[in-house]
Specification:
The protein is mainly alpha-helical. About 50% of the residues lie in helices and about 0% in strands. The protein contains one helix and no strands. The chain has one helix at about 15-45. The protein starts with 12 loop residues before the first helix and ends in a 20-residue tail after the last helix.
């Protein structure tokens, strides 16, 4: 195993904490995020968008100028 410049190896205490955190929570985060992305994509395909695009508005509607 190659040593780092300061003499620490990959088995150091500092690197173990984030690695344990990632190993513990990565499966749960993945199980939540991937289905959320799929549901959002399917919803976007079958639901009509809300509101009208700015260019499609009638010319009588004037935006507030503050």
């Amino acid at each position: 195993m190659p040593e780092r410049v300061n003499g620490a190896t990959d088995g150091g205490v500092v690197g173990q904490r984030p690695r344990r955190f990632q190993e513990r929570f990565e499966p749960a985060v993945t199980r939540f995020v991937l289905p959320a992305i799929c549901v959002t994509g399917l919803t976007a395909q079958f639901v009509q968008p809300v509101g009208t695009p700015w260019r499609a508005r009638p010319s009588s509607v004037v935006p507030c100028s503050g």
